[in-house]
Design a protein that fits this description.
This protein is α/β, with parallel strands linked by helices and about 325 residues long. It contains twelve helices and seven strands. It has three domains: about 120 residues, Nucleotidyltransferase, domain 5; about 70 residues; about 120 residues, no CATH class.
Length: about 325
């Protein structure tokens, strides 16, 4: 174990709480630092200088809190410090002492988690500028689309129950909806532009779209969420991360139906669900599989989850082989 100091970081918008411990869980330092790139870098460098250790002897662990973790990621990447971004649910379930809660205690618990599960660490890998740009454009599309759907739902409810209210709302929202539609069309073109800038991403997107049920948006999200498949080493790894692998649920004589874990990337799981629903509407073996299993009395959601799992393996196969999915050879997947 090269790391001598383990730093647990509790992230928030304005600040980060840091707890530094040794491998024997003894506390070395607790400190609050502003959540800014420069401040985080200064803290790491000052600590290394004070303790006379190299940056390679530091190991930082933090919960995945989305955008609040970006300054920490950039600082660690710039300094070459190992960083582990872990699921909050995993850390919570692994913590036995849950009495009381504060940012200071959370930082200490994260540090202790990093020592206890150091052998299971998954180091953060920096995504490319093209991936970051694709993610930003996709997020903008998602935001505008959700707003448009909310407005359309409001109009549909008014239309069926209050014609006068519908007339009023339509006069208010009509121009806005047209603007949203135009912006969504621009974003679709921008997504294509970003993909074309990177030949590897563009090629992978085309390969994914060759799979029945996988469209452009599913392909884009898989590229974003997997760092263009660089963060995974097998189909099973990706399937587990996507939350489509059923695990045993047994205790003594009590044997329940295997269930999928809640510790999954919900974004990927959601788009996989939509892809599975799309796939069973196509003229493919997945539709035949769905009809056969349901007619045998299988639970519909269990069958759909099996299709999601099959889709993950098809996705991994076309990326690994760098060849499109061919219907005539579909039994090879």
């Amino acid at each position: 174990m090269n790391q001598k100091y383990f730093i647990g970081v509790d992230l928030s918008k304005e600040k980060i709480d840091c707890a530094v411990i040794l491998s024997d869980y003894s506390i070395v330092l607790e400190k609050i630092v502003k959540n800014q790139d420069a401040k985080i870098k200064n803290f790491i460098l000052a600590f290394a200088k004070r303790t006379k250790c190299s940056l390679s002897q530091l190991f930082i662990c933090a919960e995945n809190t989305g955008i609040y973790g970006q300054p920490l990621k950039r600082a660690c990447s710039a300094l070459g410090v190992d960083l582990w971004i872990e699921s909050p649910l995993k850390i919570k379930r692994a913590t036995s002492d849950v009495r009381g809660k504060s940012d200071r205690k959370d930082a200490l618990r994260i540090a202790e988690y990093s020592v206890r599960y150091f052998d299971r660490r998954v180091l953060n890998t920096e995504s490319s500028a093209d991936i970051d740009e694709l993610a930003a454009v996709a997020k903008a599309r998602e935001t505008i689309l959700s707003q448009r759907i909310a407005i359309e739902n409001q109009l549909n409810e008014a239309k069926s129950h209050d014609p006068q209210l519908y007339k009023t709302l339509l006069s208010v929202y009509k121009t806005m909806l047209k603007t949203m539609e135009k912006e969504l069309q621009k974003i679709e073109k921008q997504l294509d532009t970003v993909l074309r800038k990177n030949s590897e991403m563009s090629n992978n997107a085309e390969l994914l779209k060759s799979i029945p049920g996988v469209g452009k948006q599913v392909a884009v999200q898989f590229i974003i969420q997997t760092n263009n498949f660089k963060d995974f080493d097998s189909a099973k790894h990706l399937a587990s991360y996507s939350g489509v692998v059923p695990f045993l649920n047994e205790s003594g004589k009590l044997i329940k139906r295997p269930r999928v874990s809640k510790m999954a990337n919900l974004k990927i799981k959601t788009i996989l669900h939509m892809a599975a629903l799309s796939a069973i509407r196509t003229k493919s073996e997945l539709r035949v599989y769905y009809i056969r299993k349901v007619s045998e009395g299988k639970n519909k959601m269990s069958v759909i989850n099996a299709i999601r799992n099959k889709l993950v393996h098809r996705i991994w196969a076309v990326i690994e082989r760098q060849s499109p999915y061919l219907l005539e050879t579909q039994n090879n997947y």
